[in-house]
Amino acid sequence: MKKNTQNPNMHYQTHVFCCVNERPPDHPRSCCAARGSGALRDYMKSRTKALGIRDIRINNSGCLERCELGPTMVIYPEGVWYHFTEKEDIEEILQTHILKGQRVERLLLKPGQTFLVPPAEHTIDLKVIDIRRDTSDILLIEVAAGGENELPPFSAGAHIDLLIGDKYRRSYSIASDPSDRGKYILGILREKNSKGGSAWLHENVEVGMHLVASPPKNNFAIIQEATQHMLIAGGIGITPILAMGYQLLRNKSKMTLHYCTKNLETTAFIKEVQKVFGEHVVLHHDDGDVSKGINLDGILKQYPRGAHLYVCGPESFMGAVAEAAKEWPAENIHFEYFAAKKENPDWVNEEFEISLSRHKKILTVPREKTILEVVREAGIFADASCQSGSCATCRTALLHGRPEHRDAVLTEEERAENKTIMICVSRAKSGERLVLDL
Ligand code: FES
Ligand code: FES
Fold it and tell me: Domain limits of the chain?
């Protein structure tokens, strides 16, 4: 097309079109509105005003016909396209593109591009700087940054995934003080039936060795608005809870820890726990007989208004806490699982369909396969780690449909909302079609 060089001056220096097109919820292509474009466009408008940016117009647009890359926006007169999913993306587009005239490379959509490029897995290099045997089967491993970069910050309750050889990927909570940017401390329990994860670490890890890990992730964060915090740890479940203790102590928050182990000899991090929690820790030893252990019914009978309960330990232990905490609002109870929840006997695998809205594919998930397996077999990238519903790496936005959530990560509230699904374990009933943001 020939350019007309006699155009009048532009009325707006910058014109942004954000797609807010909406399709029926079960539409196989889905739409930008279902992926949250309306609220992000509003955010862009309000931030533009707050930043005092003039000569700009931000308009709603109908379908820009790049739905598989959505939400999408195009900025004129440059004709630059972006994909955006969160407020941080909008902020970066405003700060970098609009204010500095540069480009936000990670969000750019190229001409002719039809699929979003899956993010490359980001890993961090760790160097073992100290090893301590804390109990007969628990090893404390202290790691620092392996290269020149600083360790990524973490919040209390976070974990990292250690990538052990090609085969094993194991999640370990960070037990150290989140304000200490120089190291992470991990508590590694040697699992009885370990096939290579914890057993390998117990047998092979040495000071000076480098380990590869994911950056910290947190599915077990402290709730800032809580009026008080009750923490219950079973065995090695103390690791995220100790990090929470450092943070709560610094915040001068009201807290109580119930720490349950067999006896003092099997109690990990005992010195640190006593130092951090002081008079706010109650130790419960059962000598291997659960009937002599913590009186959960007595402790949890009453719900102190506004309190939040955090629980980490073996699955049966967490089940007992959930049972005893019936008077507590479900949204005030937080569990951190190390492994998959026990199979619910009511779960029956049925065949159902998934619609991959970005890839324009409808696939059948047979009884013997997971959604994750079916997606990967179709040659489509889907990130995953534990593959047992406990780490949230495979969390995928659900645009439509009624799933059967089988993970250990989502809260009751999130389950009811049905906006995300762990595709490594969760399924649907026969006749159902789940529309996924993939
Ligand atoms: S629905 Fe937004 S580009 Fe089509
Ligand atoms: S991969 Fe861990 S929850 Fe799915």
Answer: 14-109, 124-213, 228-336, 352-436
Q: What is the CATH number of domain 14-109?
A: 3.40.30.10
| Residue owning tokens 């628990």 | 138
Please identify, by atom number, the ligand 2 atom nearest to the C-alpha of residue 407.
3
pLDDT at 241: 98
The string of pLDDT tens digits covering residues 61-78 is 999 999 999 999 999 999
- Is the pLDDT reported for residue 1 higher than 70? no
- The residue type of 252 is K
Whether 174 is in the pocket of ligand 2, judged by its Cβ within 6 Å, is no
Q: State the chain's maximal CA–CA distance in angstroms.
A: 89
- Quote the ligand 1 centre to 17 CA distance (angstroms): 11
Residue 149 C-alpha to ligand 1 middle, in angstroms? 39
Measured from the CB, is residue 332 less than 6 Å from ligand 2?
Answer: no
Determine the topology of domain 124-213 in CATH: Elongation Factor Tu (Ef-tu); domain 3 (2.40.30)
C-alpha to C-alpha distance for 47 and 53, rounded to whole angstroms: 9
Burial class for 325, CB neighbours closer than 10 Å (0-12, 13-18, 19+) = buried
Cα 266 from Cα 237, distance rounded (Å):
13
Please give the structure tokens belonging to residue 370: 């997971």
Average pLDDT of the chain is 92
Q: How many residues make up the chain in this entry? A: 438
**Which residue from 20, 72, 83 has its CB within 8 A of the most atoms of ligand 1, so it is best to mutate?**
72
For residue 214 and ligand 2, the question of a CB distance below 6 A is answered with no
Q: Which of 234-243, 331-340, 392-401 is predicted with the least confidence, judged by mean pLDDT?
A: 331-340
Secondary-structure class of domain 352-436 per CATH: alpha beta
Fold of 228-336: Rossmann fold (3.40.50)
- Between the CA of 84 and the centroid of ligand 1 the distance, in Å, is 12
- Among residues of the chain, what percentage have pLDDT more than 90? 76
Is the CB of 391 inside a 6 Å radius of any atom of ligand 2?
yes
Contact 438, 358 (CB under 8 A): yes
Cβ neighbours of 288 (radius 10 Å): 10
Contact status, residue 286 vs residue 264, Cβ threshold 8 Å: no
